[in-house]
Amino acid sequence: MMTARRPGMWTLWLLAVAGAALSVPPTWGDTGAGAEATAEWTIVGYLSGEGDLGPAAERYLEGIAQGAGAAGWNAAVLIDRLDNEGACAARRYLWRAGAGEAAIAEPVPGSKAGINMGDATTLAELLGWARREAPAKRYALIVMGHGASGDRPAHNGVALDAGSGGDGLTSAELAGAIRLAGGDAPAPWLDAVFVDCCYSGSLEMAYELRGVAEAFCGSPGPMPNPGTPWQEVLGRAGSRQCAGGRELVEACLQVVAGSSEDERPVLCGVTPAGLAEAGACLSRVVTRATQNMAETAPAITLARSQSRTWGGGAELCDAAQFAVRLSECASDPAVCQPARELASALERSTIAVGGPGAAGMSLLLPGLLGEVPAGYRQAHPGIAVGCGWAEFVEAYTSRLRDLMQPAALSGGGAAPTGGQEG
Questions:
Q1: Other CB atoms closer than 10 Å to residue 119's CB: what's the count?
Q2: Domain chopping of the chain, boundaries
């Protein structure tokens, strides 16, 4: 964990927020009377720093502020952390490009537990506030905090809030908050979404952002400290005059790929709109494989074993690698062909990857005796329900348990009932 540093004082104005700073505004997406989008970009930071991420959140605050300032852009940041007495020290900051002296924001009033960063309303309010107070031609969102993989169903999400029982934003909540804050703006109004949390770079999350964001970037595996160097990323993006979300994601991945940090994140950038085709291909794989799971399960197991995995129980696999391997391992042409098309669709939607051993987006696929986590369908309805992936995983793991039962009984033990492989 890095040492906390206080944000530098520089030549952009910081708006102090007092009173009912996080009250829900009457109109989420209005930019306010007389407001003009004079800045090219507004960078919105959503930093969940309670618990052990307080120093990291402050580093992100400083990096976003200084990077946006160097680029001549606006920055609007909400940072949630606890003070030395354990009380809420949440603050939000606003820098307008070209304004005057900076000042420290007032703390957000509230209980000791403070605001809940795992509540979609908190994110939607911040985005709406940023659009009203710092309108720009383009917007990017940076979410920072802890994330959880599928083996922790009670904490399934990102930006986990330690003061709110570990509540986190699910993929559906993230997309819903962005839609709500957009109001009547043409979709997608948000140009780029960066989720700097462990296990955020999933196909499930990217798929939910279709029609919500032009570009998405996350980490399919652990997100180590010090995280993304946003001061350098935004400075480079500003010097290149990035004209859209894709270009901003490319700048981020180039900086991470060229970093000399020992602990660099593995990041994957994608265009969510391109995943509509991938979803259709995945649905065809799921339909055929689920109908014929007895024949297909060995190929699924082999394909999974040849794909990169992440998570406490290795319950996440590289979606593109799995699709390629399944197209090679399966004997059923009705599985092979859509799996091959899925791999191609995922490749076309990928902007770039960065970091050590760079890989693609993750996808839930538990190994031996795994199961679909509680709340998975609600958290990621597009992939889990719309594409039928949850039903597929349940059919696959049920088949594995059926295959294991005779072996367990012949050894004199009871039939296995569940759990994750190590």
A1: 18
A2: 13-274, 276-409
pLDDT bin (cut points 50, 70, 90) of residue 17 is very low
Cβ–Cβ < 8 Å for 392, 289: yes
Give the burial string for 13-46 (b: 16+ CB within 10 Å, else e).
ebbebeeebbeeeeebbebeeeeeeebbbbbbbb
Q: Exposed, middle or buried, 239 (CB in 10 Å: 0-12/13-18/19+)?
A: exposed
The DSSP-derived string for 102-138 is --PPPPPP--TT---TTSHHHHHHHHHHHHHHS-EEE
Average pLDDT for 89-113? 65
72-94 pLDDT per residue, tens: 999 999 999 877 776 777 888 99
Q: How far apart are CA 55 and CA 84, in angstroms?
A: 12
Report residue 328 as tokens.
């090679």
| Count, residues in the chain | 422
Is residue 256 very low, low, confident or very high in pLDDT (cuts 50, 70, 90)?
Answer: confident
Beta bridge partners of residue 92, listed in sequence order: 78
Paired tokens of 28: 């989420």
Cα gap 36→321, rounded to integer Å:
46
Say if residues 162 and 50 touch (Cβ distance below 8 Å).
yes
Could you tell me if 376 and 344 are in contact, meaning their C-beta atoms sit under 8 angstroms apart? no
Whose CA is closest to 317, among 218, 421, 220? 220
